[in-house]
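Listing S7. Sequence submitted for prediction.
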Amino acid sequence: MPAKQDPGPSVKDEELYEALREEGNSKEKSARIANAAANRSRGEVGAKGGRSGSYEDWTVEELRRRARELDIEGRSSMTKDELVTALRDH
C-alpha cells in the first residue's frame, strides 16, 4: 500500500479525502466532496440537489417533452404508461 500523501492545506476532511481517493475518485473530486462534508453534515452532502416528482405525476405533455430531450423514438404515439416505462428504461 503506497504511503499516504498529504492532500494539502485546502482539504478540510483528510480522512474522507483519502477514502474517496482509494475508491478511485480524482483529487479534485475528492477534495470538493471532503470540503463540502466538512462544511455540512456528511449525510447532507449526497442528499443535496433537486427532486423531480415521480413520472406518474407528470402530464403526458411533460413526459413527451422529456422523451424528446432523450431522443426516444415512437414517443408521439405512446400512452402515458408507455412513456413512463420508456423513460425509466432509458
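Caption to Listing S7: primary sequence and predicted C-alpha cells for the chain studied. Helices lie at 14-22, 27-39, 42-47, 60-69, 80-89. The first helix runs from residue 14 to 22.
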